[in-house]
Amino acid sequence: MDDLAKLFNKKGLKIQGEEGERAYEKDDCHDLMRSMFLGKEVNTLSKTTIERLKSTKKLNSSEFCHYLSQIEHWSIDKLKHTLPNPADSAYMRWMQEQVR
Fold first, then answer.
1. Residue 70 and residue 12: Cα distance in Å, rounded?
2. Which of 7, 51, 64, 83 has the fewest CB atoms lying closer than 10 Å?
């Protein structure tokens, strides 16, 4: 998410908020990716409906790796940008297992 925030800022993209424009931060990118690839969950509490972005914390390892794969492909397709992937990461081990 840091890499995406740096890329968006380098391209001059801004967050439009209540307090005006500001630069992207990693949490903004995290929210954007969750919105694009995980969607929202809706809960009703005492007749009040609450919508919020789905949490990555609730994903199992396979689901989380699939989420990362979606982000990686989106970044290449839409931004023409390859995100860094440490060779020793759990995500890279998962990707190698998918090829087998």
1. 24
2. 51
Closest CA to 2 of 71, 55, 95: 71
Nearest Cα neighbor of 55 from 68, 64, 43 is 64
Q: Write down the pLDDT at residue 85.
A: 79
**3 CB-contact burial (10 Å; exposed 0-12 / middle 13-18 / buried 19+):** middle
Q: How many domains does the chain have?
A: 1
Q: What is the CA radius of gyration of the chain?
A: 16
Does residue 59 contact residue 67 with C-beta atoms inside 8 Å? Answer: yes
Cα gap 34→49, rounded to integer Å: 20
At 54, list the tokens: 């789905």
| pLDDT of the residue at 100 | 65
